[in-house]
Structure formats: C-alpha cells, structure tokens
Design goal:
This protein is an alpha/beta fold and about 500 residues long. The chain has helices at about 1-5, 20-30, 40-50, 85-90, 120-135, 160-165, 175-180, 240-255, 280-290, 295-305, 345-355, 380-390, 405-420, 480-490, and strands at about 10-15, 55-60, 65-75, 105-110, 140-145, 185-190, 200-210, 225-235, 260-265, 310, 315-320, 325-330, 335-340, 365, 370-375, 395-400, 425-430, 430-435, 450, 465, 475-480. It is built from 14 helices and 21 strands. This is GNAT family N-acetyltransferase.
Length: about 500
C-alpha cells in the first residue's frame, strides 16, 4: 500500500523555466490549442527565456513541467488598449520587451489537463503578482481568451456574455478563473487572436493593479510604519498653566523618546485649571478656562517642534464672546497648526456649559499619513468617519472624556466599528482619576487603545494595543499604513470598495 502511494505522490515545485523544458511545454500547449499556431516554436521559447528569464515561470512535478506562465515587460503606452497579440509580442519575437517598461504583460499560461482542479493555475498567478510587486511594475495586463463564448455567440454579444460570466450565470474556463484571481476586465478586444474560433476571435483585456506601485520611489519622506504614542492622562490639581505644561512636556518627552510620530492627549486634558474658577457658575468657569487655550496651543506647538513629534492636543474650550466651542489642535512638528471642532455636543455639555457644535470636518495631511480627528461623542456618529474615509484617511484620532464605564464603552465600541467599516486605524485615549472640586468633571474612566481593521493582515482581535483601565500610562505602538492599501484592494471583505453607491450615499451639507 505504501509503495503504491509513493508512486503517485506529487512533488510540486515552483521555479523558472529552462530551455530543456521545451518539450514538456510544447506537449501541454499542443493539447490545449487546436492548431500548431498556438504552440511556441523552440526559437521563440529560447528568445523569451533570453530577454526576460525571470518572467518565465513553471511548476514541475517530480521533474516534469506540468504548468507554466510566460510574460514580458512592456511600456504599455506604446500599445494602448487596442492592440492584438502579435503586435504586443512582436509576432513572437518578444523584441517588444522593455526592461524600463511599467507593465508585466502575460503572454501565455497553461496547465496540463491531468492537473486541472488542483489550483495550480492560482499558484502561477500568485507568482506573477509577486514578480510584479518586486519589480515595482504598475500592473499585470493580459489578453484573455473566452473559449466558452462559441456556445452563446448566436444569442449573446461578447459584452453580455462577459457580464453573465461575472455574475456566475455562465462558467468560462478561462475568464471565470481570471476573475477569481482579482483581474478585472478593462474592455473587449476584437481580432486579438484571429484563429481562436472558440472565442470567435474576441478577447478580454484583463488587468491586475499592483497597489504597492510607486511611480517615483522616494528615499525619504515615504513612511509606511507609523508609531503612535497615546497618553492616558491622570486628572490632578495644577496651580497654574506652567504646572500643567510641565506634566504635558513629561509625556511628550516620553513618547518622543520612543521616536513616536504622534502624541495623543485626551479631551479637556486642561480641565484641572477649572478648580481656580470653582466659585463661579459652570458656564462661566469654562469660559474662563478658554482664556488659557491660546497660550497652551502656542506652548504645545513649541513642544511639537522641539521634541519632533506631531501632537494632537486633546481638546480645549474656545470662546469668542458669542459662541463656546470644543476644539482639538493638531500641532505638527514642522511648526504648523490645524484644528478640528467637536460637531456634536452631549445634552449635559449643552445644559451645563452652553457648549455648541462646530460646522466643518476635514482630513489633515501630515508627514506620517492622512489623519482625522473626532472628539469623543463625534465618533458615535458613523457618517463622520465615512466622510473622512472618503477623503483617504489613514488614522483616526479620538480624544475623549468619559465619567462612567458605560459612557466609555459607547466611545470604545464605536471606535472599533469605525476602524472596521472605514478600513483605517483608530487611536483613542481619555483621562483617569478624580477632580473633587471641579463641577461636572469630578470623575473619569478611560482605557486607551489602538484599533485596526479586522482581517488576516491585522491582529486577530483587531486590537493593536490597549492600556489597563484607569491607570495613568502611555501606549506606544506601530501601525503599518501599507496594510490599509492591501486591505482596501485585496481584503477578505472591502467595506469601502463594495458600498452600493447606486443605492445610497452620504452628503455633507455646507452651511451658508
């Protein structure tokens, strides 16, 4: 029994083709194509190996070639979408190959009929994709036969046939496989292979896009790994702004020491200064607190530059004599500032302080990705995260202040949801401790965290890092922005890409 099993045991190996493989290759191709015109001559095969040996891939089983994928590199703009097979391959001479080209062009792929159903073709496609990425080529393009079309040529146009294959109402042995391997149809080509009677000389122009392609590779300023530093801040009495900023500088220094790109502070981290105005009505007290905001932002900006870290300065009150707002400042390490207002105020914030919501939202460019800021309650409104995601946000920062665990869990649960549905990272942090003599800010609850999308490229529970609850501490963790690109184009699910925009959309209504 064991001997019989040994005799049929497969030993598959992925490797580059050699000239000595020609007989195996020709034998497979002759069984696939009806005429000798579909089989490469040995001279053509030799030339393809000569001009681009890395692009000629095969799978062998116990030393015998059972499948292969052949390709060249071309400057695709020379040919455009209206080419035929002979034109782009130089009539089989492959003198169209260009080492400086931008596109990997698939000239052929074949699998021995005895090995169909073993998903060997998928291995070849994956190897081609890996080659395309490693060579930093824009895409893979190929002309795909539609051999199943002959049965439907009298009743369906090529376009309708392709649509039905896409919808899995018809199975095409070539096109169905290519669609399953993440290729999309750019257009239908006529007279691509004039002798291909099964396809009625039609072909699909197929493309797989390399999401990692960099047209102008940057040697600096092209960050993929971004380090986040989150401060879970303890509320304590400070006698003045100097005392407050001394504690802020300690934490900025700490996360900067780990070479963090961002430092996130909580909402109303400067609330301890309210103690000075505790004899006043709550609404008066917070307006006096707003008088410190300009100085704090200025000093925070100096810290960002001197410690080389982008600071999201939690949030602070801003009062212009007519309107009280809650604002978060982004203090970049290049010395520039931006701000994001809290749009939704809670019933308590409106009742106690007279706080009002702002009117705008945007994504901010930084030297470490495109970021958004939603202050506390705002993260509980999914429309805002989606609007930011549509502006290609990479990281969403959520400074919050919550007094009870159930209030925290609302923010925390919604933050996780924003990461999954918008395919971005979400960083949240709040404050801990107590402020006995500050009305409406007396108790705190926080558990800082960094969340990711939920897929194979990310932590299994979508939690990048998490602090212990209700302890003053920091989180420092890395996030990989390149994984977001991969998720959006090749994830198990693609929430952004697969929205039914034919049915619904989110629109921002700008106030006059």
């Amino acid at each position: 029994m064991s001997k019989q099993w040994e005799e049929i045991e497969h030993r598959l190996k992925l490797r580059n083709l050699k000239l000595s493989d020609y007989n195996d290759v020709a034998k497979i191709m002759s069984t696939i194509y009806k005429s000798e015109d579909g089989v490469w001559t040995k001279a053509e095969f030799r030339n393809q190996l000569r001009v681009f040996p890395e692009g000629q891939i095969c799978i062998e089983d116990n030393g015998k070639v059972v499948a292969g994928a052949l390709s060249i590199i071309v400057d695709y703009d020379r040919f455009g979408d209206n080419h035929n097979y002979d034109q782009i391959t130089g009539y089989g001479k492959f003198d169209t190959h260009d080492d400086e080209g931008d596109t990997l062009y698939g000239t052929d792929i074949f699998v021995d009929k005895e090995y169909r159903g073993m998903r060997i073709g998928r291995r070849l496609y994956d190897a081609r994709k890996e080659l395309c990425e490693n060579l930093n080529l824009r895409s893979i393009i190929a002309g795909g036969r539609i051999p199943g079309y002959a049965k439907y040529a009298k009743t369906l146009s090529p376009r309708k046939y392709i649509d039905q294959v896409k919808n899995k109402e018809i199975f095409d042995p070539v096109l169905s496989f290519q669609l399953a391997n993440e290729f999309h149809v750019r257009k239908v080509i006529t007279k691509y292979l004039p002798l291909d009677t099964d396809s009625r000389a039609y072909a699909t122009l197929l493309e797989w896009i390399n999401i990692y392609y960099e047209k102008d590779e940057k040697l600096i300023g092209n960050k993929s790994i971004v380090r986040l530093g989150l401060v879970q801040w303890k509320m304590r009495r400070f006698s003045n702004v100097d005392d407050l900023m001394q504690q802020v500088e300690f934490f900025v220094d700490t996360v900067s020491g780990y070479k963090s790109d961002f430092c996130l502070l909580p909402e109303f981290f400067n609330a301890p200064l309210l103690a000075e105005f505790n004899h006043l009505d709550a609404s008066e007290a917070i307006r006096h607190l707003a008088e410190y905001s300009e100085e704090i932002v200025s000093r925070m900006s100096e810290l960002a530059v001197s410690y080389n870290v982008n600071i999201i300065a939690g949030s602070m009150p801003e009062y212009d004599g007519k309107k009280l707002l809650n604002v978060s400042y982004l203090c970049r390490r290049d010395g520039t500032n931006s701000k994001q207002y809290k749009l939704h105020v809670t019933p308590d914030e409106a009742a106690y302080w007279g706080l009002q919501g702002g009117n705008g939202i945007k994504v901010f460019d930084t030297d470490s990705g495109r970021i958004g800021i939603l202050i506390c309650y705002d993260v509980e409104f999914p429309e805002l995260g989606r609007i930011l995601a549509e502006q290609e946000m990479d990281i969403l920062f959520v400074p919050f202040w919550t007094d009870t665990k159930n209030a925290f869990l609302r923010v925390d649960t919604c933050a996780k949801s924003r990461a999954i549905e918008n395919e971005c990272y979400v960083a949240i942090t709040g404050s801990v401790g107590n402020l006995p003599k500050v009305e409406n800010m007396d108790i705190q609850f926080s558990k800082a965290a960094i969340y990711s999308p939920s897929d194979f490229s990310f932590p299994h529970d979508a939690v990048v890092a998490q602090a212990s609850e209700n302890f003053e501490t920091t989180i420092v963790a890395d996030v990989d922005l390149s994984l977001l690109t991969k998720q959006r184009k090749a994830g198990s699910v693609r929430n952004l890409e697969q929205r039914r925009l034919d049915l619904y959309s989110i629109q921002w209504k700008q106030k006059n």
